[in-house]
């Protein structure tokens, strides 16, 4: 059981790291601007259309009978 708990915690830590990376990438993409000739264009290089994913449990719990 400890190994399963450890695996679940590692998965949560990994997902948190992914979320932080995506957030940092989004912030960086909104701060960087392409330069065409002598004028900077105000639109970001990367266009993000973010939608929160549906939350699903990592472990399906059995209903007690």
TrEMBL record:
GO cellular component: cytoplasm
Keyword Transmembrane: no
Entry annotated with the keyword Cytoplasm: yes
InterPro entries in UniProt: Alpha-catenin/vinculin-like_sf (IPR036723), Vinculin/catenin (IPR006077)
Superkingdom per UniProt: Eukaryota
Keywords: Cytoplasm
Family of the protein in this entry: Belongs to the vinculin/alpha-catenin family.
Record-given protein name: Catenin alpha-2
